[in-house]
């Protein structure tokens, strides 16, 4: 009974910890937003109203968030990182920071505070191009980093000779990193499609329903990436 209660408390504590993160709440709202977009298919109705209202509400979560990537832009990079990956990483930070900054003006426009609607819509479109560009940079960075990890893992395998590579701590750590980056690669690549859908660059192929489906999947991936580590429960 005591063990079951301890487990329940630990699980509930994880839920509380998760929901206390503004980023986690934003990604949950994002899942609702794109799930509604998928259901509506771009047609007027309740689902589309949920899509639009959730989209506007999410912008509040992102107020001043551009500072995070601005800090990343001026922060030093790990030693040994190839120059192309450094440049791509910094470009991603710059583009994402610009997207988040312009997104605040879009929120002001849709809230009625900023009166120039045409300017707000133009800045909104520019911000989406910035987000699309940052997703492209992220995709290329992840491809490069996965390649570097693969090379490191092959070197470890050669060093082990006949040993079990899965018992080697360094190999397991590299494998975990590779899996995490592979998931990030899938997410960023799918987000390119989402951005293209929002910009209506290929409206016949990337319909609102396709945009909603891809956006919902990347939202679920983001929610998974933010999950806290489960603590180990001691059993008597």
TrEMBL record:
GO cellular component: peroxisomal membrane
Signal peptide boundaries: none
Gene Ontology biological process terms from the UniProt entry: peroxisome fission; regulation of peroxisome size
Membrane topology: Multi-pass membrane protein
Pfam families: PEX11 (PF05648)
Superkingdom of this protein's organism: Eukaryota
Cell compartment(s), UniProt: Peroxisome membrane
InterPro entries per record: PEX11 (IPR008733)
UniProt keyword terms in alphabetical order: Membrane, Peroxisome, Peroxisome biogenesis
A molecular function GO annotation: identical protein binding
Known function: Involved in peroxisomal proliferation. Promotes peroxisomal duplication, aggregation or elongation without fission.
PANTHER family, per the entry: PEROXISOMAL BIOGENESIS FACTOR 11 (PTHR12652), PEROXISOMAL MEMBRANE PROTEIN 11C-RELATED (PTHR12652:SF10)
Membership in a protein family: Belongs to the peroxin-11 family.
Subunit structure: Homooligomer. Interacts with ARC5 and FIS1B on peroxisomes.
Protein name (record): Peroxisomal biogenesis factor 11
């Amino acid at each position: 009974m005591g063990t079951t209660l301890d487990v329940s408390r630990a699980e509930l504590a994880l839920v509380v910890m998760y929901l206390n993160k503004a980023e986690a709440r934003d990604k949950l709202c994002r899942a609702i937003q794109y799930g509604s977009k998928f259901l509506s298919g771009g047609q007027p109705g309740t689902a589309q109203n949920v899509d639009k209202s959730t989209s506007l509400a999410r912008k509040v979560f992102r107020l001043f968030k551009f500072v995070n990537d601005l800090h990343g832009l001026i922060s030093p990079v790990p030693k040994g990182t190839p120059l192309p990956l450094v440049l791509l990483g910094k470009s991603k930070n710059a583009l994402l920071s610009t997207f988040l900054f312009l997104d605040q003006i879009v929120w002001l426009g849709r809230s009625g505070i900023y009166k120039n609607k045409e300017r707000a819509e133009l800045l909104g479109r520019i911000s989406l191009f910035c987000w699309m560009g940052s997703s492209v940079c992220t995709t290329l960075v992840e491809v490069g980093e996965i390649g570097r990890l693969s090379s490191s893992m092959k070197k470890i395998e050669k060093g082990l000779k006949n040993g079990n590579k899965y018992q080697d701590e360094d190999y397991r750590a590299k494998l975990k990193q590779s899996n995490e980056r592979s998931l990030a690669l899938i997410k960023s690549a799918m987000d390119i499609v989402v951005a293209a859908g929002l910009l209506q660059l290929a409206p016949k192929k990337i319909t609102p329903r396709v945009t909603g489906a891809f956006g919902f999947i990347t939202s679920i991936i983001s929610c998974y990436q933010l999950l806290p580590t489960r603590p180990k429960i001691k059993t008597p």
